[in-house]
Amino acid sequence: MTAFCVMKLLCQATRNEHRYAKRFCGTLLTQTQQKRVFSPFWMVVSDPTKSVVFGLTQAFCTAEKSPKELKRKTAFGSVGRRIPYRILHVINQDGESLGNMHRAEALKLMDQHDLKLVLLRENVEPPVYRLMTGQQIHEEQMKRAEKKKSSANPGMVQKELSFSSTIAKNDLDTKTKQIAQWIEKKYHVKITIRQAKDSNADMFTLFDQILETVSDKATYLSKPKVTREGVSTCILRHMSDKELKAYQKMEKQRNSTEKKDEDLKSNELHP
């Protein structure tokens, strides 16, 4: 009779364990359908005569990351032959669209014309690549670096001046004095010069003349460039302490050399 009771209790305990295990696994399956989260569990049996023990490990998720998480900032340059996309929209070195093509065809064109592939836009379908020469890539990298450097800092004040290439000397002197005052306050100064009709004045030379008047404290933040037909701009900034020291040292050496040349000429005239 005692043996029968013991067997009945063991059977009941086994059924309870199976019921709890099914309920536990059912909860995991529900989580999987909702969030695609799997929490694998391990089973430890310390002794064959004892109950099964369940424990949870750290959960992991197979949900895909958001586009923001996947987006990576890459430097502008050749991507080599590592292209993760099958279909590309390709632009040639002259800026003309070649349409969509398989990456193998794009690599073939790259090899045939001795060019490099550069990723322009990744967040479109298909992504846009351009075939470029090494010189084109270098020039674009320089433009981007200059643009980043010339972008105004949040706390930086930028003043602007605009005038014609035929500006009168007195007016130019007045504007130059204003530029010197702004530079002294360590402002950035954007200068825009408009090419007057029937004027052959070299605007870049005019920019250099303006810089020469403040050369002891200012330098180009953004070098003179043509922004559109008949209009050129540049940005001046105050030199850093390191640049000022280098400039003063260079001026001292130049003055010393000039003085030596003058003494040499004087000795030749009065032996």
UniProtKB/TrEMBL annotation:
Residues 80-146 form the Translation initiation factor 3 N-terminal domain. It is found in: Mitochondrion. GO terms for cellular component: mitochondrion. GO terms for biological process: mitochondrial translational initiation; ribosome disassembly. Its main location: mitochondrion. Pfam families: IF3_N. Keywords: Initiation factor, Mitochondrion, Protein biosynthesis, Transit peptide. InterPro entries: T_IF-3_C_sf, T_IF-3_N_sf, Translation_initiation_fac_3, Translation_initiation_fac_3_N. GO terms for molecular function: ribosomal small subunit binding; translation factor activity, RNA binding; translation initiation factor activity. Residues 246-271 are annotated as: Disordered. PANTHER family: TRANSLATION INITIATION FACTOR IF-3, TRANSLATION INITIATION FACTOR IF-3, MITOCHONDRIAL. NCBIfam families: infC. Belongs to the IF-3 family. IF-3 binds to the 28S ribosomal subunit and shifts the equilibrium between 55S ribosomes and their 39S and 28S subunits in favor of the free subunits, thus enhancing the availability of 28S subunits on which protein synthesis initiation begins. This is Translation initiation factor IF-3, mitochondrial.
